[in-house]
Amino acid sequence: MEKRRVVCPNCDSINAVPVNRPAEAAKCGRCHAKLFQGTPAELDAARLERHIANSDIPVVVDFWAPWCGPCRAMAPIFAQAAKTIEPRARFAKVNVDENPEAARRYGVQGIPALLAFSEGKVVARQAGLTDANTLHGWVERLVVCSNPG
Q: For the Thioredoxin domain, which residue ranges apply (predicted)?
């Protein structure tokens, strides 16, 4: 039976989710939280690394800061994308003020910055505030590319 690795947004355990079962109902084997909650996971640098290194679905990360007006405007758009696109992709947010090393590691020079990871590597970037349709289309293309067939 084919399985996909999915990292729990609650306890960061790596779970094997059978592809022939509804992912929306999948729960963590360790903490029993839903693996897909329809909201972006708030991650620090260490948790971010665990998610991108151990996930078989794309991980879309919003690098942001609380003082940033465009970041605050982007937040509900990003949250809505998480609600409609999960479980085909994981959505996460990283506060660059609290995690400057993560921003440096991935070359984030301005915020908001969206980075998409697949197989542990950055596969796409989107700089600045974007509207819901553009974000949705951008992520949908990533999902299709990472899950051919």
A: 17-144
